[in-house]
Amino acid sequence: MASGSPVSSPSPPARRNVHRRRPARNTRSGYVLLAPLIVLILLVTIFPAVYAYYMSANHVLLSNIDQRHFVGLGNYADELHDGRFWQSILFSVFFTLVATSVEFGLGLALALLFGVIHRGRGLAISFLLLPMMVAPALFGIMYRLLLNDFVGILTYYLSLIHVSTDTLTGTNQIVPLVMVIDVLQWTPFVFIILFTALQSVPQDILEAARADGASAWRTLLAIRLPYILPALVVVLLIRGVDAFKSFDMIYVLTGGGPGTLTTTVSIYIYRLAFNTGDLGHANAAAVLLLVLLTPLLAVTLRYIIRDQGKK
Fold it and tell me: Which of 3, 165, 188, 236 can pair with 132 through a Cys bridge, CB separation 3.0 to 4.6 Å?
C-alpha cells in the first residue's frame, strides 16, 4: 500500500463481528442470582395478594377461621352498599387533600428558604428532619401524652391561657388536630426531597435569567418548578398515598373517634377484621381500596416514565 493512500475503513461484516454474543451460561447465572429475589417477592407480595382475593370471596370469621363459606362477590356488594365504608373513604380523601396540600406548600417554602440560607443550614436541617425519624405510632403516643389532662405539658401551658384540651379533642377540633400533627411529622419529608431537587437546577440557567432581568417569582414559575416537575409529582404521589392509608398516628391518638369522625379507610378495615372479626368483608374492603388507588398510581407512574423518556 502506498504511503499516501488513505486507509480504508473496515467492512460492515467485519465491524459486526467485533461484537460477540453473550454466552448462554451467563444468562443462566443471572437467573440463578435472581431466583432468591423472585421467591421473596412471591412470598411477601404475590402470595398475600392472592390469598386476600381468596378470602374476600368467602364468608370467614376470625373466631372460626377454619369454617369458610364461598359467597363470590357478595362481600364486595355488601361493602359497596355500606355507608361506613364510603364515609371512611371520604374522610381519607379529605384528610389526604388537606394534609398533603399543606405539607407540600410548607415543604416547598422551606426548601426555597434554605436555598438562600447557608450559615448553620446543616444543623437546622438536622433538627428539622427529626420528626420524620419517629415512627407514626410513637408520634401519636407522644402527642397523646402532651395533651394528657394530668401530665401533659401542652395541657399545662394551654391552661394558662384558659384553653382546655377538651376543646382541642372535641368533635369540632379533632380533625384539624390530627391534620396538624400529620403536617408536623411529614413536612420535613416533602422539604428534603424538594430541597435536593432545587439544588440540582443548573446555576448557569438561573444566572442567565437574572441577567435578563427576570424576578425571583418569575424564575421560580418559569424555570425552577418546571425543572423539578418530576420530583414534585413523585413527592405528591408518595405523600398522597401515605396520607390516604394513614393508620398508626390517628388510631393511637383518637382510635378513629369520636365515633367514626376520624376513621380512615385503614382503620375501618382494621376494625372490620379484628373488632368485628369478619375477615371476608375486611379483605373485600382492602381489595376495593386497591382497585380505587390503582388508576391514580398507573396514571402518575406513566407520566413519570414518559417524562424521563423525554429527557
Answer: 188
